[in-house]
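dumping this here so i dont lose it
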């Protein structure tokens, strides 16, 4: 077990089952390591039941919650091989379908999402809406028994490898005429569903796409859940997304810190290893403290969500995502700095994390929007927008 892991956790914070799950996933991660093949690891993690730990047992899942799923992602990240689509496929889409889907949708999707044989992407972000989901312009209108969707999405991960994308659109409320959010399952090969890759500086295994929905026609049963419960369903998926992003950031931060600590223990320039110098040691100690604090908040958020406290989970998930992203960015920065020139080489594999760490600060919601949330919801301060 790595230095920044958790053998000392008491059962008050983490149960024996969770500690055992961490150890098992960490061992799988170490077998694959930084040079991992995404498909192979995804298949193996699915076969071992790790991808569906949060999904209902009756559909082949583990019957656990986001607490377990976030542990899996954190430990894979800690070994240098995070599976980004875990945030989307089992956490957002799996949660929304298992909470709100029809029996048929559950039968069709959950077993595959649980064992990894099916994946689903999630399409909410739009070119002109940004963090303002009230400005989403992708619209869905009824045409006979069908739905017709048109609009654009941007920065949607893994659409090329996902079997379908859960698209957030808006339908017109017949009573008020105002638009309300609704979720639709759009299979990858649907006619009029176009995707084009976005050229990213970030060299991630999962690609980002812009989507164009050109009056695509979907059957009535493509709508997930109740047409009138859209906002509730949307937020049911967004809290797990924040908890999972926190876990993603924690794993990356721990991975970087472990590499730096290893290096600081063995690298000698004068008489003793560079880690003996406080200018090297103290910033690494600080990074470790910040990651541990963020990990506690992530556990709290997952616990509240799994206990059904959506309001409490909303606050905690936002805070956990904020804290983990900040801790991750600082840990990566300090790790690269500790290695000096080696920190920028491909051989040590840390420099690419400088860009990757920024993702957790920006997505799925910026740190500024989280500070807005905490100002209004937690502190009761007035809104500026």
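and the seq i came up w/
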């Amino acid at each position: 077990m790595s230095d920044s892991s958790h053998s000392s956790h008491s059962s008050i914070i983490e149960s024996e089952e969770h500690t055992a799950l961490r150890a098992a996933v960490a061992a799988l991660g170490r077998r694959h390591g930084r040079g991992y093949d995404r498909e192979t690891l995804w298949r193996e993690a699915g076969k071992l039941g790790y991808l569906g730990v949060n999904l209902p047992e009756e559909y082949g899942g583990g019957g656990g919650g986001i607490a377990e799923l976030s542990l899996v992602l954190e430990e894979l990240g800690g070994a240098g091989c995070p599976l980004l689509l875990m945030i989307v496929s089992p956490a957002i889409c799996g949660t929304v379908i298992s909470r709100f889907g029809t029996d048929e949708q559950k039968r069709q999707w959950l077993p595959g999402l649980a064992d990894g044989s099916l994946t689903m992407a999630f399409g909410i972000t739009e070119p002109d809406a940004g963090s303002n989901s009230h400005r989403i312009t992708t619209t869905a209108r009824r045409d006979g028994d069908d739905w017709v969707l048109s609009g654009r999405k941007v920065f949607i991960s893994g659409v090329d490898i996902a079997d379908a994308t859960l698209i957030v659109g808006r339908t017109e409320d017949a009573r008020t005429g105002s638009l309300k959010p609704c979720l639709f399952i759009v299979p990858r090969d649907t006619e009029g569903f176009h995707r084009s890759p976005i050229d990213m500086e970030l060299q991630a295994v999962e690609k980002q796409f812009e989507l164009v929905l050109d009056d695509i026609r979907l059957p009535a049963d493509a709508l997930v859940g109740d047409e009138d419960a859209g906002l509730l369903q949307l937020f049911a998926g967004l809290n797990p997304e924040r908890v999972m992003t926190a876990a993603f950031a924690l794993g990356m931060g721990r991975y970087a810190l472990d590499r730096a600590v290893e290096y600081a223990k063995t690298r000698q320039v004068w008489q003793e290893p560079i880690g003996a110098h406080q200018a090297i040691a103290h910033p690494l100690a600080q990074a470790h403290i910040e990651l541990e604090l963020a990990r506690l908040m992530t556990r709290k958020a997952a616990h509240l969500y799994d206990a059904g406290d959506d309001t409490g989970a909303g606050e905690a998930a936002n805070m956990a995502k904020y804290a983990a992203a900040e801790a991750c960015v600082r840990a990566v920065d300090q790790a690269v700095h500790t290695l000096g020139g080696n920190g920028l080489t491909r051989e040590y594999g840390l420099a690419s994390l400088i860009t990757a760490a920024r993702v957790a600060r920006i997505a799925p919601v910026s740190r500024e929007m989280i500070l807005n949330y905490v100002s209004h919801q937690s502190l009761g301060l007035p809104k500026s927008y």
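The longest strand covers residues 146-157.
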